[in-house]
Amino acid sequence: MHEFSIASAVVATAVRHADGRRVVVVRVRLGALRQVVPDALAFAFEIVSRETLCAGARLEWECVALRVACTPCARTWELERPPFRCPGCGDGAVAVVSGEELEVESIEVEEEAACTA
Ligand SMILES: [Zn+2]
Predict the structure, then answer these.
(1) What is the C-alpha to C-alpha distance for residues 61 and 3, in angstroms, rounded to an integer?
(2) Average pLDDT estimate for 43-55
(3) What is the pLDDT of residue 115?
(4) Which strand (E) or helix (H) includes residue 18?
(5) CA of 51 to the centre of ligand 1 (A)
(6) 113, 37 in Cβ contact below 8 A?
(7) Angle 52-3-29 from CA coordinates, rounded to 5°
(8) Which strand ranges, in their side-by-side order, compose the sheet holding 94-98?
(9) 60, pLDDT greater than 80
(10) Sign of the CA dihedral 54, 8, 25, 115?
(11) CA 113 to centroid of ligand 1, rounded, Å
(12) Which of 41, 73, 78, 97 places its Cα 20 to 30 Å from the Cα of 20?
């Protein structure tokens, strides 16, 4: 289950940006090539985030489709899985445009409580 190592990285990033504040929501972008199972990631996140600033935070994700570009004819298209072959010219020389994302897009932190002391 590589979701646990991903969840650890996500929590570490969120905690770093939270700067001591409690995290409420963490949004991540998951590229199709990463083959992350969102439910498994949510489960791993819940466990890994315990006793951190992310404890109890909601994990939201956006799946980024795999998109490739043909080198010879510059056509781009989305696909579910390999083979990477251009539907236009049939060439196999394609480059991945998107789908490799695995990043924390944003976090929401709790509003700082007003100091009443
Ligand atoms: Zn092509």
Answers:
(1) 13
(2) 97
(3) 56
(4) helix 3-18
(5) 51
(6) no
(7) 85
(8) 76-79, 66-70, 94-98
(9) yes
(10) positive
(11) 56
(12) 41
How far apart (Å, rounded) are the C-alpha atoms in residues 113 and 2? 37
Fold of the CATH domain 3-65+99-109: hypothetical protein PF0899 fold (3.30.2320)
67-111 residue pLDDT tens: 999 999 999 999 877 778 898 999 989 999 999 999 999 999 998
Supply 56's token pair: 């109890």
pLDDT score for 35: 87
Q: What DSSP state is assigned to residue 113?
A: P
- What are 1's two structure tokens? 């289950």
The neighbourhood of ligand 1, an ion, using CB within 5 A, equals 70, 73, 75, 86, 88-89, 91
Total residues found in the chain within this entry: 117
CB 78 within 8 A of CB 97: no
Take residue 87 and report the two structure tokens written for it: 């539907």
In angstroms, what is the span from residue 87 Cα to ligand 1's centroid?
7
pLDDT computed for residue 1 by the predictor: 60
7 has pLDDT over 60: yes
The single-letter code of the amino acid at 36 is: V
